[in-house]
Write a structure and sequence with these properties.
This protein is an alpha+beta fold. The protein has two domains: 313 residues, Outer membrane efflux proteins (OEP), CATH 1.20.1600.10; 66 residues, no CATH class. Helix content is 70%, strand content 10%. The protein contains twelve helices and six strands. The strands form two sheets. The chain has a four-stranded antiparallel sheet with strand order 2-3-5-6, with no helix packed on it. The chain has a two-stranded parallel ribbon with strand order 1-4.
Amino acid sequence: MKKILLLVWLTTMTLTAHADRVLSLDSCRALALANNKELLIAGEKVTAARYQRKAAFTQYLPSFSATGAYMRNQKEFSLLSDGQKGALSNLGTNLAGPLEQAAGQIIAAHPELAGLVSSLGTQIAGALPMLDQAGNSIVDAFRTDTRNVYAGAITLTQPLYMGGKIRAYNKITRYAEELAMQQRHGGMQEVIMSTDQAYWQVVSLTGKKELAEGYLRLLKQLDSDVQKMIAEGVATKADGLSVRVKVNEAEMTLTKVEDGLSLARMLLCQLCGIDLTTPIRLADEDLENLSPAPSSEEANVDRAYANRPELRSLELATKIYHQKVNVTRSDHLPSVALMGNYVVTNPSVFNSFQNKFRGMWNVGVMVRIPLWHWGEGVYKTRAAKAEARIAEYQLQDAREKVELQVSQAAFKVNEAGRKLTMANRNMEKAEENLRYATLGFKEGVIATSNVLEAQAAWLAARSERIDAGIDVKLTEIYLRKAMGTLGGN
């Protein structure tokens, strides 16, 4: 990646310093890869998947959480009823009546104890207020003062067995990260293929433009010669008009090719992230030096199976769906977790009710066992298995299509090679035919129409030669794309 960025920077600086600098195919690829927004998005998806994988791994580890609460109550909790509070607060007062009644009964039964009972009653009456105070103290001691309640807890949770859900989630996130990387790799291949197509389209139209210019020069030269022959009386005006018509057609064709070339250059600039008005030249625009070599890529279906990012993505998707079956099944299996807490409250209840923060710790094991859900778990598990089978069928279908693509791409490579060989032969014959027709016309033994036919045949042969050469390049790209090796793999 650093090499690509360095190449992009060097290319950008070069373009800034030299507005008409030549771009090679590799530099166009590097610029396109660095400036494609879809690839940037795919890169962020890889980053997100990586962090999701790391987050899933934390489910194996113990978790800590802190909780705090405050509550204001309108009334406080009371451990004593209103009657009990009244009885305790008037404990001495309530005892005065029964004591006087008992003293009267004792004096009536034993008159000789009247003085002693009176003396004792006076002492007891003096102690009754103290009993009232003691009762009030008891009532105050039973107050909870729970109008302002504070509570806090620190909780530790350690999963012990979750039915295989945590392990399945970790596998899913790992597969998802690999899937995001494969999708990004597939996107890179698409960008490279689009860039190559645009690159060779520019090269092709550049050759067509030079060919159209050469054809126009031939027609203008022929027009000049015919006009001289008309002036000398050895050619007719009909011959001159026929040549003029061909000149006009050639000029129109040249205009169309120039317009197409401008649009093709704009497309390539857009793919490379270059300003659309920037004049660029390509290293392969000189078609005379463009001699496509036979493709070194061999059609190997097994290699395509191993390299194609689409197949690898479907394989990973199949694995993900199989793990989703485990996740669905785990929802209906027993789960075990270790729990630990440290709880703090105010008022505290560890030494009666006190307005102090006091706490305690506790540990335990929590077990959850689903008992009966009317077959919900079975149905969901079967549905997940069906989705997994769908993914497997999609993978099989994709493998069959990849095999067909590789076979077709290899056939097109061979066909393009044969067409290039025939186009070279046809071009040699057309050039020889044009040379003889031109010489015969100058000698006056060949008619103007025959020269025009020879020039048209030469134009068609040269155009087919350009198309055949570009087809060799493009079919090689398509074969490498079908093999999954485009851009290096």
